[in-house]
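Progress against Task 2.4 (sequence-to-structure conversion) is shown through the following example record, which the project officer requested during the mid-term review.
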Amino acid sequence: MLSLLFGLFVIAIVGIIALAVVGTLLKFTIHLVLLPLKLVLFPIIAIVVLVKVAVLLAIGAVMFAILVPVAIMLAILAAPFLLIGALS
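Structure tokens generated for the chain above:
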């Protein structure tokens, strides 16, 4: 009876190892099949990322260009009150 249990354990371990090997081979096969697709899409993805970075940079420059005059106007309006507050 003990030898049957040991045989069951051996078969279970071999089955688990076989499943791991099959899973690894399947993963490798899928990666190998999708490699040409990745190589074709890489330039497109690079262009999309470059455009995204350019748009974000442009939006940041516009926000900076809008906020600088606003900050100057606030400084001009606040300066007299700050001077009066400092003298009194």
